[in-house]
Design a protein that fits this description.
The protein is an all-alpha fold and 415 residues long. It has one domain (13-402): Growth Hormone, Chain: A (Up-down Bundle), CATH 1.20.1250. It is built from 17 helices and no strands. It has helices spanning 13-39, 41-48, 52-80, 82-106, 110-142, 147-171, 175-193, 214-217, 219-223, 229-260, 264-292, 294-314, 318-331, 335-343, 350-379, 381-384, 387-397. Helix 6 runs antiparallel to helix 11 and helix 10 (229-260) runs antiparallel to helix 17. The chain is globular, with a radius of gyration of 20 Å. The N and C termini lie far apart (43 Å).
């Protein structure tokens, strides 16, 4: 458990920057794990010999675990601190994907793979909240908004994972070996950098640490965030963004293989194009947010996602479909990090609100896979992705909930 610096303590810039760099890696590691799994999903389907509907059911294992982890996450962070939670959350993530790889390769066993994905999902959900809370605290210590860059490092992780998955497919590497190596890399990495991560206790813009209020200390205070209308609206926004991103994570490779007739290796590479576009969007997102504000950027992002999906679904030419994937990736880049920043606007309720918002958002991962899988049984996976457009439209409508807090005595900007 990390120790709490006393109120009034100031962090020097060198420690703050080392903390930032450690959080960059922390965000990258779950991305590496997720993409390592997703990039091998067509091969997993073949090994288990299952239908699209059964693939959707298998992916529900991640979602069930994630929801469980997210519901518990704010209480775990409050009890053990973000540093400890991040460390053991990433160890659990590594264990989950390793179990899944063994189940698929040595069984193959659908049931054990499902259990492995539940462990993976629970550990990832807990880690997700802890790393966003720590990232938001680091933002305040730095005095500037860099949350999209933290999430860009998640995308860097997915790029590395997708590339490694494509290479593993080409080399015929067993899924268990591939996922086991990825898990071992995660465990070694977090134990190397955990000492640089500072406690998440509220840091104001002058770099001074202050005590958190009862929203962070008590179960009742943390649960009260679920009655706050702004929390719920930001949650809907994050749900829409998570659905746009998660549908690609779960189904893009298979939709490319089944809908556009490419092979498994090309399907993995097309998924790599998506995560690369997301990474570029997140790196450029800080500039866009500074210039246009959260609301305008969110609405523009959802519009790009819709256009990209329409091209990918309805244009049969593979090169043009890949252009659609690029637009889809750019449009999916900023919704989740903006939602996390908006949830952490009030530092004294950040952990509780981030946990609530993330829990709502992760319902996209719970509902999305089976819905798209079941629709895919009748329409094909490619056309089942049309449901993502509905969520994107809803996300655009509630984007105003993420508006930046108005400084005292200032007027709200127009959007």
């Amino acid at each position: 458990m990390s120790r709490t610096p006393p109120p009034g303590t100031a962090l020097d810039r060198r420690r703050v920057l080392a903390w930032r760099n450690a959080i960059f890696l922390v965000f990258a590691l779950p991305g590496l794990a997720m993409a390592s799994w997703v990039s091998r999903l067509p091969a997993v389907r073949d090994a288990l010999d299952v239908s699209p509907g059964q693939v959707g059911l298998l992916i529900v294992g991640i979602s069930v675990g994630s929801i469980t982890g997210l519901v518990a996450s704010s209480h775990i962070v409050a009890r053990f601190g973000a540093v400890t939670t991040i460390t053991w959350g990433l160890v659990g993530t590594a264990l989950g994907i390793s179990i899944t790889g063994l189940a698929v390769t040595l069984g193959p066993s659908f049931s054990f793979a499902f259990v492995g994905l539940m462990v993976f999902g629970a550990a990832t959900g807990i880690t997700d909240v802890a790393m966003n809370v720590s990232g938001a605290a680091n933002e305040r210590a730095l005095g500037r908004s860099i949350m999209p860059i933290f999430h860009a490092f998640f995308s860097f992780g997915t790029m590395v994972g997708a590339a490694a998955g494509a290479l593993a497919e080409l080399a015929g590497l067993p899924i268990a070996t591939h996922l086991g190596v990825a898990g071992a890399l995660m465990v070694v990495s977090i134990f190397l950098v955990r000492r640089f991560i500072q406690p998440e206790h509220v840091i104001e813009e002058d770099g001074q640490i202050v005590a958190a209020d009862d929203h962070s200390r008590s179960w009742r205070g943390r649960l009260s965030m679920w009655r706050d209308p702004r929390t719920l609206l930001i949650g809907v926004l994050v749900l829409a963004a998570a659905f746009a991103e998660g549908s690609a994570n779960d189904w893009l490779a298979i939709a490319s293989v089944d809908g556009h007739g490419v092979n498994n290796e090309t399907g993995a590479l097309i998924f790599g194009v998506f995560v690369t576009a997301m990474t570029i969007g997140r790196l450029g997102g800080v500039f866009l947010l500074d210039r246009f504000g959260r609301v305008a950027v969110l609405r523009g992002s959802f519009f790009l996602a819709v256009m990209g999906l329409l091209i990918f679904i309805f244009v049969p030419a593979t090169p043009l479909a890949i252009v659609g994937v690029v637009l889809w990736g750019l449009g999916s880049a900023l919704g989740f990090p903006i939602g996390m920043s908006a949830a952490a606007d009030d530092p004294k309720t950040a952990a509780a609100r981030v946990s609530a918002v993330a829990t709502i958002g992760y319902f996209a991962f719970l509902v999305g896979p089976p819905v798209i899988g079941l629709l895919g049984e009748y329409t094909g996976v490619l056309h089942a992705l049309l449901i993502v457009l509905v969520l994107a439209a809803i996300g655009s409508l509630v984007a105003g909930a993420a508006r930046e807090p108005r400084p005292s005595g200032a007027t709200a900007p127009l959007s």
